[in-house]
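Handout, section B. The chain below has 159 residues.
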Amino acid sequence: MTEDLPPDNPAALTSFIEARYHARHREQLPDLTALASRVERVHAGAAKVPAGLAAVLQLMIGELEVHMKKEELILFPAIRRGGAIGLENPIAVMRADHRDHEAMIAQIRELTDNLTLPDGACRTWTALYEGLAGFLDDFDAHLQLENEVLFPQFEPQGV
């Protein structure tokens, strides 16, 4: 996150999250899904092939798109209007979604042996794991920013 320092203002932070993370995830996941499909097809049956990875990534595209739309259309506009009382309920839904996304991330890590390439991996397989590493770093930073910086500002103390 050193190249992009998030703003301190919650309203500006929501715009930062949309521009920096939502847009990037929308770019990353389709390309990663295509690479995963190619690796799975070309190396079917090979040791350490991440069989099922493309399906997990495809599912994540859909799940993450729904989640980001809920933030962009409901939660973030409310925060930009000053964060009216009652945001703890939509935030609780977002936190639950985040837990579901983290389970998918764990599945990605399991299927890829924590992004460990086999000896002699081809360029496509290498590009896939390098791209996944970037996505996972971005995704972790995204969740951390929302869970630890943005959301607590609108939740009752002790949540």
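Note. The longest helix spans residues 10-42. Compare this with the example in section A.
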